[in-house]
Amino acid sequence: MFQVPSFADLNLWLTAPATILAIGACLILLIDVLFIPKDRKVLTAYLSLGTIVFSFIFNIIHFNDRGSAFLGSFAADGFTSVANIIILVTGFLSILLSVDYIKRAGIERGEYYSLILFSLSGTMFMASANDLVTIFVALELLSIPLYVLAAFRVPDLRSEESGLKYFILGAFASAFFVYGAALVFGATGTTSLPQIFNQVQTIVATGGSAAFLLLLGAGLILVGLGFKVAVVPFHMWTPDVYEGAPTPVTAFMSVGAKIGGFAALARIVVVALPSFVLEFSDAAALWQQAFWIVAAATLIVGNFVAISQTNIKRMLAYSSIAHAGYLMMAIAAAGTIGIANLAAQAVLLYLLGYMFSNLGAFGVALAIEKDDGSGTNLEDFVGLAKSRPVLAIMMAVFMLSLTGIPLTAGFIGKFFVFRATIDANLIPLAIIGVVTSVVSAFYYIRVVVNMYLRDDKEGDPATGGTPFVQYAIYAAFAGTLIIGVLPFLATNLTDTIAIAATTLGGR
Question: Does residue 505 register a pLDDT over 60?
């Protein structure tokens, strides 16, 4: 007979950072409709920022707590805590970027902020998910608000097209994930990640059809999450969606979807499938080769196609694809014995640096964007160093950080990703990563050249650089430099992360 779980069984206290956002989103949606007038939607933004701060406080209280909730489907540990910090800062900066933009674009509606909070809560649940079903539900909670937000600038046809494309391809991605999870369940008899790990031991020892089902299921899960994080060959939607969506939404989805997707992918390969090998004597998991091939293809396509882009949003879209390739390098490295925990740390450190640098870059792009959505071509950055020297300096730092230049947050992230890749003995992949990093310098530095070395026209006045936008850019700039100059502030957060199965010697 079914027994209703008690509050002690659910252990809701550990889930507080994520549930606060979900409950807060519902309450703010009601408060906005019932009490906040149309011309005072900034109050809704303040409530949303306050909810994020409240969640952040609870996350600090529970920092590095270890335990499970929701009958084992939610894992609270150091990985969850650090991921939550990155997610909450992403949401906070994204809302700051949005406040004045949606007003001048004529799309100021209170549900905008609730949608961001719902998506943030989904991202947090993905990072802490300990079960494939939980990952799927969290994936939908992350994705569905993004479909709406991408099309939020109605009646702009580009925005409507963006939302429709994202919705259709996102639905396909979800279907792939569900089918993959079903095959994994068929092979192992469970959807719990730790229990899948236990069953894999038996499957490797006995072989048979279960191994084939498990391999096929793992591949389909990669396809489903690959769409969300925009790795090759599942990346084709990214440039059009990024260009058509409202710029603050593009900034948010470029970071938020990656955090959720890669956090879930890291948990799946590190917690559930690290021992999925052909023979017990194998030093690397069976899926590792496929993952590093995807990583290599993503690095090559993302960086080389970005060179030809003339629109900053499309350039950053292909840049986002390339950065997914660097994160996939760490995921692939997790398949080697003894590297999994280092790889999980590298993923979070990379996401932290990428979050500050990418949101800052989109913030500067937002500052020079016109009310009608134009003004985002690379030519619009010409002369910015004269008209807005402070913005130009910060944009230059963001571009250098995305390239991976020392003394920036981007360098710290790449250092740990390359370290994990080399320790995993994936030398060809590391070489590809180095070469494509050099290639990326061309299109990032081109923005700096336009701002400083071309003076054939007056720089843009950057009227979109309103106080809220500037606060977000300043915060991103500070984060980019502080982590680059004082990396121990970030590495101290991740040094204690250990989510790999201890029975594999820290695999």
Answer: no
Statement: the pTM of the whole predicted model exceeds 0.90: yes
Cα 334 to chain center, whole Å?
Answer: 18
Nearest residue to 89 (alpha-carbon basis) of 323, 348, 396: 348
- DSSP designation for 273: S
pLDDT tens for each residue of 146-203: 999 999 888 878 888 888 889 998 888 899 999 999 999 998 889 999 898 888 878 8
φ, ψ dihedrals at 131, nearest 5°: -150, 145
CA nearest neighbour of 259 among 173, 350, 160, 166: 350
Mean pLDDT of 215-233: 89
Q: How far apart, in whole angstroms, are the C-alpha atoms of residue 507 and residue 340? A: 5
Place of tokens 């950053």: 316
Nearest 5°: phi and psi at 107?
Answer: -125, 30
Tell me the chain's radius of gyration from C-alpha atoms: 22
User: Buried (b) or exposed (e) across 57-74, using 16+ Cβ within 10 A?
Assistant: ebbeebbeeeebbbebbb
CA distance 192 to 206: 21
In angstroms, the CA 80 to CA 244 distance is 32
* Tokens 């280092």 belong to residue: 342
Q: Report the C-alpha gap between 448 and 442 in whole angstroms.
A: 10
Q: Which of 344, 363, 282, 415 is nearest to 96 (CA)?
A: 363
Per residue in 195-211, pLDDT (tens digit) is 988 888 788 777 777 88
Angle at 212 between CA 208 and CA 214, to 5 degrees: 110
β-bridge mates for residue 321, sequence order? none
Find the length of the chain.
507
From residue 30, give the alpha-carbon distance in Å to each of 27, 37, 95, 110, 275. Answer: 5, 13, 19, 10, 48
CA distances from 266 to 88, 219, 330 (A): 19, 14, 9
Q: Are 224 and 173 in contact (CB under 8 A)?
A: yes
Q: Which among 81, 84, 83 has a CA at the least distance from the CA of 64?
A: 81
DSSP codes joined into one string, 226-283:
HHHHT-TTS-TTHHHHHHHS-HHHHHHHHHHHHHHHHHHHHHIIIIISTT--SSTT-S
Residues 6+ apart with CB under 8 A from 165: 237, 240, 241
* Other CB atoms within 10 Å distance of the CB of residue 12: 13
- Of the CA atoms within 13 Å of residue 159, those in its CB half-sphere come to 21
Domain boundaries, the chain: 9-504
What single letter denotes the amino acid at residue 137?
V
